[in-house]
Write a structure and sequence with these properties.
The chain is an all-alpha fold. It has one domain. It contains 3 helices and no strands. Helix 2 packs antiparallel against helix 3. The longest helix is centred in the middle third of the chain and has 36 residues. Keywords: Membrane, Transmembrane, Transmembrane helix.
């Protein structure tokens, strides 16, 4: 049993010693993918800011105009905008741009 394990160890050691250390290489079209990712991040942040602005405007309209829109709906729009803006910021931090 021990001799079989030693033989297997020697065989795998020999095979693994023949595998070279691969060098890092940029994937094809990586620059275009990063450009698309940055545009997507920018769009996400802008849509989040627009949603927060829209929610604030709706709250003001409700207060001074006496409208009948649900405050829960307006609060959800503002929360969604804050989440989208945070997601864009987090994506920028992860990518490191």
């Amino acid at each position: 049993m021990v001799s079989m394990l030693m033989a297997a160890h020697d065989m795998y050691g020999t095979v693994l010693a023949q595998i070279g250390n691969p060098s890092a290489e940029t994937p094809p079209m990586a620059d275009k993918m990063m450009k698309m990712f940055r545009y997507f991040t920018w769009f996400t942040q802008m849509s989040g800011i627009a949603a927060i602005t829209y929610g604030g405007g709706r709250f003001a309209w409700e207060k001074w105009g006496g409208g009948s829109a649900s405050p829960k709906m307006v609060a959800n729009a503002m929360l969604g905008g804050a989440t989208a803006t945070s997601a864009g910021t987090i994506m920028n931090a992860v990518v490191g741009s």
